[in-house]
Design brief:
This protein is α+β, with helices and mostly antiparallel strands. Helices cover 33% and strands 14% of the residues. The chain has 12 helices and 9 strands. The strands form 3 sheets. Strands 2-1-9-8-7 form a 5-stranded antiparallel beta sheet, with helices on both faces. Strands 3-4 form a two-stranded antiparallel ribbon. A two-stranded antiparallel sheet has the order 5-6.
Length: 369
Amino acid sequence: MKSCISRWAPTAVGAVAVLTLLGVVGAVAAESAVSEGAVAGVRASQWIVVDADSGAVLAAHDERTPVRPASTIKLLTALLAVGQLDPAVPITISPVAKSMPARRMGMPIGEQWTRDDLVHAALMASANDAAVALAEAVGQGSLMRYAVVAQSVGERMGLEDQPFLAEPAGLDDEHAFAGGSLISARDLAIIARAVLADDLLAPILTLDRYDMAGLDGVGHYVLGHNRLLDRYPGAVGMKTGGTRAAGSTLVAAARRDGRTIIAVLLRSPDMYTEAAMLLDLGFASPQGPPLAGDVLPAVVPGVATTIAIPDVGEAERSTDHASDRPLSIGDVPQNRDQAVLMALVTIAVTQSRRPMTRRHAPREMALPR
């Protein structure tokens, strides 16, 4: 049981592209981001470059339009899993998790896995069955409840661009829950900062291989498939994605001389090359506290550790009122699942403003230096 992909040798960005980028950066003031379309050669539909330490947006293009994220949304799924779930409690694979399409681990129904093993499989091998199993555990057996947690925590994190966070694996086809998720490049960058600040998740992003002694007593391993780790000096990983609807997507991060840069690309025709170009742009930009321009909200320690989850039955009885206060894509639900989900989210966001019950103590979180 494994995920394997051939590794590419490191490839430098072309000299012409680098000179073009440096020319652009030289013209950018420290307090403002590069204007839309200013980065020659980057053809991703939406993208953003962020200083992970200060939260300053260094460059961006159409970064606030919610679109299909593909598997990059697994960063949020993993963040919620480590915040909500006890690592000592095994997670049982359900028929829904078992039914997920590839990429997947192929875990049988009823088999039990640890939280940490499933998190590694979801982030490194992009295993859809692992992501759904984690989401069901967060939702206490219900993907509806998981969506409540995701939407409510997203609001507390400062996600602002009407994200629709129903789908934990990033699927957007007939296998997707409630039609799939929608999120902007800027909101994904907010999630990426939180993941980099998490002392359990951040090291996973850099791994080539992870061995696990499954609860079935059989040894297993997964191999990472993020080629950025081989191709870009200082890369600290993050998450790849790709579907027909989303195209190729990538959340990338790299660290040099104590500075960390995040680049998010959605629907990119050449995601690794374009990520390298954007990371180069970030490192070439002036460093220091932002004086003006867009700045991402601060990372909130323990943001995913507590939540009040409403009763699903109560939410279903409230479905007719779901459109009273739209919380995500801002239009009519496409099916009953989305209508019920919007009702759940309405209740969850209301409850999230009340005192919360703590599932377990939050772990230390600090931005990397």
